Amino acid sequence: MARRPVAMLGLVVPLLVAGAAGAAGLLVTVGEVTETTAVVWARPPGEGPVTVEARAAAGGPAVTGGATASAKRGGQTVKIPLSGFRPATRYGYTLRASGDTVEGEFVTAPAGDQAARVHLQWSGDLGGGGFCRSVEGGYPIFRTMARVRPDFFLFVGDTIYADHPCKEPGNVPGANFVARSLDEFRRRHHYNREEPAVQEFFRLTSVYAIWDDHEVRNDFSGPSEPLMPVGRRAFIEYWPIAPPEEEPTRLYRKFRWGRLLEVFILDTRQYRSPNTDLDGPGKTMLGAAQRRWLVDNVTASTALWKLVVSSVSLSIPKARSGAGDSWSNASVFGIPQEGGTGFAVERDAILRRLREGGVKNLVFLVTDVHHAELIRHHPTPAWSFHEFVAGPLSAGLGRPRPLDEGLNPRSLFATARVNNFGEIVIEPGTLAVRLMGEDGSMLGSHTLGAE
Q1: Global confidence as pTM
Q2: Which of 130, 157, 167, 340 has the fewest CB atoms below 10 angstroms from its CB?
Q3: Reading across the β-sheet that carries 63-69, which strands appear in turn?
Q4: 75, 108, 141 — which closes off a domain?
Q5: Burial class (CB in 10 A: 0-12, 13-18, 19+), 248
Q6: CATH of the domain at 164
């Protein structure tokens, strides 16, 4: 099945999928891209060898790799680590398996000392509230995002809604169940991944994904959730994530994109205390090891901008039946509460350490609340940071609400009732953020000058 050719720096890459498209086709996602490495994820329609070959648009030797897909291992998914790329270079690749061929592209990160322009997108929340793959248009927001051609995409949680059956009329069949077994979690990931607009985008753009609650169950809390291990396994299988061998379930990580940007991706789920616990020094969302990792690495970063990816908001209250799910302890009116069940004590301790460490140009990217907002926090007279909120990609729509006054927030822009994604462009002296609607319209924007 031929797709529209894409010209890239003199190299024409026809996005070709030989054989049947959709459920029967060869699925691909590229992720964890660095200056010289990448991970190619694939799920072919049958078992057997999977090969990939990547070449730079300007020529040079090919980078190749391969793996063998097996239904008994990873649900027939494979991950192919590749190395030997050149920094700041666009590569076209060819993936072959089961008689099918897919061609796509991605761009590698600039060298750490290169002050190169950065262009990224982020969002989350795909297929919730009955807004699953529509028969008529699928997930159209991904076609809009593909037109923009970012360097990479941050998929910030709720990449599936395993706990919500897609039973509404007008949706593509295949997801009308609540996942409880490994096979069912895999099927929910496959349902979203095989959508043609999603695949079109993922063949053009590398992805860094992290989970939130709906990859397992709504508002789940780490070790207290019986389904967490199986949901985590399916998530790791279905994304091009490469945890360290000594910690095969670790999801928090960082990556550098030249001299201007370093990104720190948090896992806000698998280590967290029960949401019902009262907040205090012993309550944690990150766990002790991840918390130390975050503070130490952000403080030590030499990048101009530090982006921390948190699937849940720092300042937007979210609690149900006395169980706090976001960092905030504030009431629905934004007033901090004593005896709350959020994670504000840990949040404030982290922010205090970052402030004391002299961290500047700090931005948190979040999703989860199903509306878009740009926020500036000024918790002390001499120190501030920003929190940018995007989403949903396709889910029930939320609305802005009072922000946690404990962070001395100022909402710079907020909007609701529209599927959306965020876009950031970083130049040597500025960071420009735009919130974009599903149709490509700009909803709101703001530009920060680097300190």
Answers
A1: 0.94
A2: 167
A3: 63-69, 48-56, 90-97, 100-107
A4: 108
A5: exposed
A6: 3.60.21.70
235 in Cβ contact with 74 (< 8 Å): no
List the domain range (segments joined by +) for residue 85. 1-108
286 plus 417 within the same structural domain: yes
Return per-residue pLDDT of the chain as tens, 451 residues.
233 333 333 343 444 433 333 345 999 999 999 999 999 999 999 999 999 999 998 888 999 999 999 999 999 999 999 999 999 999 999 999 999 999 999 999 999 999 999 999 999 999 999 999 999 999 999 999 999 999 999 999 999 999 999 999 999 999 999 999 999 999 999 999 999 999 999 999 999 999 999 999 999 999 999 999 999 999 999 999 999 999 999 999 999 999 999 999 999 999 999 999 999 999 999 999 999 999 999 999 999 999 999 999 999 999 887 899 999 999 999 999 988 999 999 999 999 999 999 999 999 999 999 999 999 999 999 999 999 999 999 999 999 999 999 999 999 999 998 999 999 999 999 999 999 999 999 999 999 999 9
* Structural domains of the chain, count: 2
Q: What angle do CA 313, 318, 321 make, to 5 degrees?
A: 155
Specify whether 134 is located in the same domain as 256.
Answer: yes
Do both 30 and 11 map to the same domain?
yes
And the tokens for 21?
């498209």
In the beta sheet, which residues pair with residue 43?
27
Angstrom distance (rounded) from CA 41 to CA 77: 7
* Largest Cα–Cα separation, the chain: 62
CATH assignment at residue 91: 2.60.40.380
Mark which of 108, 142, 176 sits at the end of a domain.
Answer: 108
Cα–Cα dist 95/103, whole Å: 6
Q: Identify the three-state secondary structure at position 82.
A: strand
By the 8 A CB rule, do 124 and 156 touch?
yes
Same domain, 140 and 265: yes
